[in-house]
Amino acid sequence: MTDVARNRRPGPRLEEVARAAGVSRSTVSRVINEEPYVSAKARDAVHQAILDLGYSPNQAARTLAGNRANAIALVVSEQGSRVLSDPFFAGVLRGVHAELSGRRVQLVLMMTQQDDEQDIVGYLAGGHVDGVLMVSLHGQDPLPLKLADAGVPIVVGGRPLVGDGIQYVDSDNFNGALEAARYLVATGRRRIATIAGPKDMAVGMDRLNGWRRGMAEAGQPSDLVAHSTVFTPDGGAAAMEDLLSREPELDAVFVAADIMAMGALRVLHAQNRRIPRDVAVVGFDDLMIASTALPPLTTVRQDVEQLGRTMTWCLLGQLDGEEGLPPSLLLPTSLVIRASA
Amino acid sequence: MTDVARNRRPGPRLEEVARAAGVSRSTVSRVINEEPYVSAKARDAVHQAILDLGYSPNQAARTLAGNRANAIALVVSEQGSRVLSDPFFAGVLRGVHAELSGRRVQLVLMMTQQDDEQDIVGYLAGGHVDGVLMVSLHGQDPLPLKLADAGVPIVVGGRPLVGDGIQYVDSDNFNGALEAARYLVATGRRRIATIAGPKDMAVGMDRLNGWRRGMAEAGQPSDLVAHSTVFTPDGGAAAMEDLLSREPELDAVFVAADIMAMGALRVLHAQNRRIPRDVAVVGFDDLMIASTALPPLTTVRQDVEQLGRTMTWCLLGQLDGEEGLPPSLLLPTSLVIRASA
DNA sequence: CTGAAAGCGCTTACAG
DNA sequence: CTGAAAGCGCTTACAG
Known about the structure:
Two copies of one chain form a homodimer. By secondary structure, chain A is α/β, with parallel strands linked by helices. The first copy, chain A, folds into three domains: 14-57, Orthogonal Bundle (434 Repressor (Amino-terminal Domain)); 71-171 and 306-331, Rossmann fold; 173-302, 3-Layer(aba) Sandwich (Rossmann fold). Chain A is 43% helix and 17% strand. In chain A, the strands form two sheets. Chain A has a six-stranded parallel sheet with strand order 2-1-3-4-5-11, with helices on both faces. The first copy, chain A, has a six-stranded mixed sheet with strand order 7-6-8-9-10-12, with helices on both faces. The relative contact order of chain A is 0.11. Strand 2 of chain A pairs antiparallel with strand 2 of chain B, so a sheet runs across the interface. Chain A binds a DNA duplex through residues 13-15, 23-27, 29-30, 32-33, 36-39, 42, 57-68.
């Protein structure tokens, strides 16, 4: 292991602050932890001493004595480290950080590998963090359940496919897709297809089911479904080709992710279909690339940063023992109408 | 503050492991820390006990007793939280994580706000982490220097403009730009412009100076410089318009960032310049968008993940007190030739 | 509202 | 190679 060098901290200790303020260590501790029942006089003296001495409490000692880590982990369950470039992850991270700012809670970032899941559970259950935020890319991940079983407070981003009691926050993928489907129907489309995501991810299934519901409502067939196993432009392109060969007359496609929509647009262009005149295209996510696409993509926006924020306050709420927290939360989406549909 | 709930860890302690293995706590500690001078017999007994009991050491206690945090911080100095979506940051993070994996060192992510710099220095100098990795987006940031002064081991990603003794790792921006300039000269371009980055960022100046050197070598003028204050498509577009109005006859442009090159391409297309026939375009970074641009962008690739990895082993080396570490490091770039030049 | 004292779970000289 | 004991810097009942 890395034998991290000794790191002598020369700063003042609680003891010195107490002496400078003319109070006991207990009182200094109370002031630092913003506990009630400290006289204004004592509080002021302590604050002044802290300022004068440039005191910064030792977190390890606080954790050890207080049995509380003042840190939460953001665990990214990944099958390759490319997740980090994913706009979804970046957005969540932004939200988590925003929600944490101003609170004295540190964020520890962990990425799971295939092999070290045992270690991870041990570490996270070992009290090194107070709770866990997890974004699970494949819905079947057993980690959330294991952690919950081990008594670790956890909130998952994106509906997990396994684990009933686990609190999660997700975008309302079903209703987002339903709204997209209704919009296509309302604008006169009569042969509407969909490019769906992987079947083992809740996000994929929820969006597909929303679209299906929309078709059913309108009395339209819902046979034109092509699944892509990956959220990539190429996956979208292959699915689009498949759909076109099965039904050359299709006049609309709901693509369950903007990134796949890029591939679908490419194929439609290559086959000289005019967008939206011949084929209307609606995406999902509202990534940056949606607005710069040709033509600019009509899409269902999800607020990923809000997802991160919501996950964070849910977890902090759990930790604070707040009452009346919802078991899970669905965040609204909104249809952003541009030129492609 | 967030009063993070008590988190009773029910797991076994060192004490129990020692009892189960029939040795003293000291010996267990030595085994865990992989110290020499432990008999094979004792070692095996301890390992077995750890396994049987599912023991996971308490980090806070280790940190407190050992005066070592077993954690490093990745500090992102930001003026707005959009950094997180930046491919540069994502790449660095990926590299840091890759290099850390397998070592028992945690990564704590921190983002600085304008107002809390005092706190940050206090925290980081307070022994909560053993060292700091920092990606500083504006070169003038005083934080690296303050941390170094406070005795905190630090490695900066991207050459800082202030602070002499600070170890940094950067891509070789100067030589990358020089290679781009030479390529344009070699392919017969006679009126070569550049879109440079902000003057207060080392990355901007280094790439500009590399281009200048290339012009000087070829005996070509280096007057066609347009600075953009931001690395955005719009910034690149404005600079391109400026250049075109100053010199309608220009036949090449080296753009100091792919993201700005997108804007430059847009303007060139709008003015009906054929690329590369009328105007050759070379970018820098080799982002994803470079290969999907129209036409695919010839660009200087920098390996951002490698940057993150290198920063990390430099820091770990510092912490381990390794000898012969380079004061700073420049990573090679490479010209990726596509269709735009 | 305040202080003395015990204790959190480890590491590390020290002595053997 | 091993163990007994001190100590890391806090928090928290407990008693006042």
